[in-house]
Amino acid sequence: MAIRVLQVGLGPIGALIARQVGARAGVELVGGVDLDPGKGKEVGVTVSGDLATALRETRPDIAVVSTSSALERVAGTIEVCLAAGVAVVSTTEELAFPWRERPELARRINRAAHAAGRAVLGTGVNPGFAMDALPLALSAVCERVDGVIVRRIQDASKRRLPFQQKIGAGLSVEEFHAKVAAGGVRHVGLAESIGMLASAFGWNLDSVTDEIWPKIATERVASPDLEVAPGHCSGVVQLGSGKEGDLVRVRLEFEAHLGAPESYDEIEIAGSPALKSRVVGGIPGDLATASIVVNAIPRVLAAPPGLITMRDLPPAHWWSGVPTAPPPAGAVALPRST
Amino acid sequence: MAIRVLQVGLGPIGALIARQVGARAGVELVGGVDLDPGKGKEVGVTVSGDLATALRETRPDIAVVSTSSALERVAGTIEVCLAAGVAVVSTTEELAFPWRERPELARRINRAAHAAGRAVLGTGVNPGFAMDALPLALSAVCERVDGVIVRRIQDASKRRLPFQQKIGAGLSVEEFHAKVAAGGVRHVGLAESIGMLASAFGWNLDSVTDEIWPKIATERVASPDLEVAPGHCSGVVQLGSGKEGDLVRVRLEFEAHLGAPESYDEIEIAGSPALKSRVVGGIPGDLATASIVVNAIPRVLAAPPGLITMRDLPPAHWWSGVPTAPPPAGAVALPRST
Known about the structure:
The structure is a homodimer.
Chain A: E1 3-8, H1 12-23, E2 27-33, H2 39-43, E3 47-48, H3 51-58, E4 62-65, H4 71-83, E5 87-90, H5 98-101, H6 103-116, E6 119-122, H7 133-138, E7 144-155, H8 161-166, H9 173-181, H10 190-201, E8 207-216, E9 221-222, E10 227-228, E11 233-244, E12 247-257, E13 264-272, E14 275-280, H11 285-302, E15 306-308
Parallel strand pairs in A: 1-2, 1-4, 2-3, 4-5, 5-6, 6-15, 7-12
Antiparallel strand pairs in A: 7-13, 8-11, 9-10, 11-12, 13-14
Helix pairs in contact in A: 1-11, 4-6
């Protein structure tokens, strides 16, 4: 029987997830929740404005929560789901590893999950994969890791217009800084990825920083939607750093701008052996986030209760929904319903 | 308190694991088992010729079994460990995913593990990582996977002499085929990696093949140890393939020869999104195998009882042995002892 999924939040990412749930075998979209009930038409499902009602009426196995990057805004939503006995997977960036940055909220959600006997996971491409779970997976072949550098470099001209606007493409430098001050540019999640890596590797960090600059065009650059004059911003450069004393253990570089010569995701591990791995062309952000959420669903349902992270979850690999024979006895079968 | 490790088998890989266990925080090498008690000197530990005696005298938390690639030869050893209440991690290639190729042995070990309340894992760089666990991890960002190609290409001139000899470097073509017939060339594990991928993705394979050819030198090639004349073998090309009907779902290419222009590990996923990932310079085989075994130890001790595979284990990432603060409540702490 298919896993019953309720999609909470039908913005661009939520709608993408809803459509993927609708299209894939092994999962069934049973409803949606959004302030705008018109969103249901796009994804072909009844959308309710009230979460508690939707939970009661649709009886989901799991709720996918995609309403905000900020854990403070999402915590109440997660608790309502848990109170209804429903597991949660969320694209909330601050939930990917909240133990370092927001320990109070992490403990609160962890307690609620234990009380409900359900698991809660925050995931996505970044945080949740490119800068944390994938470097962790790669480190398995190392006898020693001294430091990790991850570079996520994106040619933003191929992304949707709201993303290009979010990263400040086309703004003057003054406008860029004003937009940063208003909280409208920063990619959320570098500190969470750093926290996950440090916790897994056993590094007690003394400082975590997250700095942001405009990328300034030296010549005219353009996307199909937008044009940037020289001296204006073509996008953003963001640098996360985690240190033990003066020693940089984790360095995360996020660049998204129009005219980046190449998109890629690169991981460098300093250690024994030293490793350098690159996803050529990069991992497409929105599709990857929707996919990892759906792929994680059976893992979250099979996980022990509590607030879990990608650090502790078996690989949330793709699955077709087709059962294989012979099924390995004693192993986790995918997909499964609770 | 450190995890107590007994190393069973002190050949080249076993000795490497023993030395790494001896050198790392959080684990302690409490003994070794080998037919040759002289092996103990190399790794600085008492070596016994009798497994049952060693288990009784050293009271390990886990045994690392590195005695053979063949599961049939290792199954009895694993059962003796389990009967003593000791978990097992093994470099036995056929144990990495025995459910498809050797279901009887898999069920037998799974039953013994359940009876003992302990977990058993087969791992290594290949099988166990480069051609199965890492492609699985990468697929997490896909909404659809149509097929997987993995290429592990190695310049064998940088590997130890026994490895160069194993892959047939320096042999005539006739000698190569005789060595293949005698079972001395083939890399064990392609079928196991194919089985793990197919089981995880939900592909019911109709055929799994594993073919082997000599790589023939067109000009003189050499390593510091060995010289290959034109027309002789510089190494091996091995191709594993898993099909549903006529559709190739998995294609694994393993090449190791003197004079390979570049070493690398490459994963290509055909699907949505299509992905191409490359470890530049490749993953060094022996060190990687020893490391992943040691890194997996806390995961095996924390796993539910039974025969498990890398498909179902949380990332066996590197860990320093240093506890981090604050410890995430409700999450698995690393390292831990049973």
